[in-house]
Description:
Layout: H1 2-29, H2 37-62, H3 66-101, H4 112-137, E1 141-149, E2 158-164, H5 175-187, E3 192-195, H6 205-209, H7 213-217, E4 225-227, H8 231-236, H9 238-247, E5 251-252, E6 256-260, E7 264-268, H10 274-277, H11 285-288, E8 298-301, H12 308-313, E9 318-321, H13 333-339, E10 345-349, E11 352-356, E12 374-382
Parallel strand pairs: 1-12, 2-3, 3-4, 4-5, 7-8, 8-9, 9-11
Antiparallel strand pairs: 2-12, 6-7, 10-11
Helix pairs in contact: 1-2, 1-3, 2-3, 3-4
Amino acid sequence: MRNIQFIIFFSIVITVYSLLSFYIYNKGLQAFPVRNSERIYYQIVFIFLASSYIIARFLERLWLSSVSDIFMWIGSFWLAAFFYVLLIVVFIDLIRLVNFVLPIIPDVAKTTSFIKFFFWSVVGLVSLVLLVGFINSLSPRIKKLDLTINKKVEGLKEITIVFASDIHLGTIIGPRRTNQIVNKINSLNPDLILLGGDIVDEDLGPVIRNNLGDSLRKLSAPMGVIGITGNHEYIGGAGKAVRYLSEHGVNMIRDTAIMLENKIYIVGREDRDKRNFSNESRKNLKTIMQDIDANFPIILLDHQPFELDLKEELGVDLTLSGHTHHGQMWPLNYITKAIFEVSWGYKKKGNTHVYVSSGVGGWGPPVRIGNRPEIVLINIVFN
Length: 383
């Protein structure tokens, strides 16, 4: 049944993507007259770019190699280019629509030479945006958060936590980026490291091939390294991902609570998309927390930032999430703001501190526009 659902979903995505690609393709074709050699080159290049990500996804399952890596990098950048070109093309067509009622487009803009100039201007502009976004994605900032939890902890006045979400280990976030992230986290000398889901990017093959687990083993904190599942662990197979991460030093907690050194509770939820990729639903949060002593500090990890009111009601002191990427590429942040109560950043609800990270890695395009990747340094004082 789930295979049928996946095939239907995949077919819908491919159909929509193909139709939008054809729409962009036809608009670009106007810049190249019939029987022009440049027209043939445009057709070949466009078809190659438009199919590269799909080819990469198939190759990663059939023939994981440097060839699949090349297609994945090209295809990932193309997804970002596709998105911004689509926005531009739709905007131009809206202007053309207005022009039918109120003529505002000068005659010179309808000439072949101007259309060709405009085509290459769009190519240059989008390329510049991708370059800036790529450079931005390589430079995660350290976001500092100072909090007070009004609970007394015997023998512990404060704690330093590093929270990193949405690393998306795989082909794009390979050995070099993974080591950079691990080194930045360790340089902050945390007492505790928390990983907020989407640690791996769907397929485990590239993670194993690049031996990224060895980098994770280097994460160091006296109170340990704790992680939870995200939707991408489930897309690629949560069982395999959890086993791999556990074998490489990450204590994966799944719909349960653990107490650290008899001082702090860490509650870890399964991702809410579990029901879409397995035959089971995740546990109710009230069930998970029913035996927790609320006199102790309670820190909750939940990949997707939903149910904030319930978390406040149940007495969670700090809830940490990711998932949103804060849209990753402007203007998608307006969509995440509409979906989530907190798309990115800090909010306090009653006595509950809420923080949603934009993530340190990224899905799909290795591009960040309108926000920065981050590692969150949280200093908590117990009062």
